[in-house]
Amino acid sequence: MKKYLLTSFAFTCLAGTLHAGPMEDSKAVAPAPPPEVFGTGLYLAIDMGANLHQDRGGNFTLTDGSGNFLDVSPKDDVGFFGGIKAGWVFGTGVVRPVLEGDLFYNGFRGGADTRLTLADGTVIRGSSATSYINTGAFMFNPMLKFAFGRFQPYVGAGVGLYYAESADIEVNTPNGIISTGGGESHTDFAWQVVAGADYYFTPKFATFLEYRYLDYTSSQFDTREDRDLGQHLLGAGIRFHF
């Protein structure tokens, strides 16, 4: 009788174990961490680079109506620019709208080489004039950013204002260098086209390379001509998100 009771108890325990299913692991699996999101929200950036080319137009010739001609060749010198940016990247998708304020200094040398040809064919070596032009610009840039993880290219355009001031003009003549005192200043509209790419080392810190075509307009506010100054700028910088 005692043996029968022990056998029945053993079968009852075994049946309960089989009905309950397999034993579960007592250690719970931790959920996977959320994926990192690079480059969104508010940011500040600094950048600097070279003003590679200023389109002052091609060579041209002036005449006084008496057979004398003055050939003018505008100069094209590499300049420097540097500034700060502040903006906001909207959303966390692949395509992200961006609004940016862009404040920067842009300096370069202007001037021209000249050659005078008299009516009788005599060629007189002309002068070479050089002026240092210092400008500051503030631009508002709507852009689109394409987020491919750490690598994020972007394109956009901007509008704003610039202030330009020319320093003393140096004129290299056959009789020596003449320096004229004081320059002129001008304020007008500006626009630009921007293309670049960020690389994020962390979700909030990146370096970037950027090209911009910058156009300083001359809308006859202070000048008698309507002549834009197109410029090609290439720079690099760092960006930090908050």
Walk me through the structure.
The protein has a domain at 39-57 and 83-111 and 126-241: Porin (Beta Barrel), CATH 2.40.160.20. It is built from one helix and eleven strands, in the order H-E-E-E-E-E-E-E-E-E-E-E. It has one helix at residues 2-20, and strands at residues 41-55, 60-63, 69-74, 79-89, 95-117, 123-146, 151-173, 176-180, 185-202, 205-216, 229-241. An eight-stranded antiparallel barrel has the order 1-4-5-6-7-9-10-11. The relative contact order is 0.18. Mean pLDDT is 80; it is low at 1-7 and 17-21.
Provide tags for this entry:
242 residues; mainly beta; elongated; eight-stranded antiparallel barrel; disordered N terminus; Porin; 11 strands
Shape: elongated
Largest sheet: 8 strands, antiparallel, barrel
Helicity, as a percent range: under 10%
Strand arrangement across the biggest beta sheet: 1-4-5-6-7-9-10-11
- Supply the helix-strand structural class: mainly beta
Rg measurement, Å: 34 Å
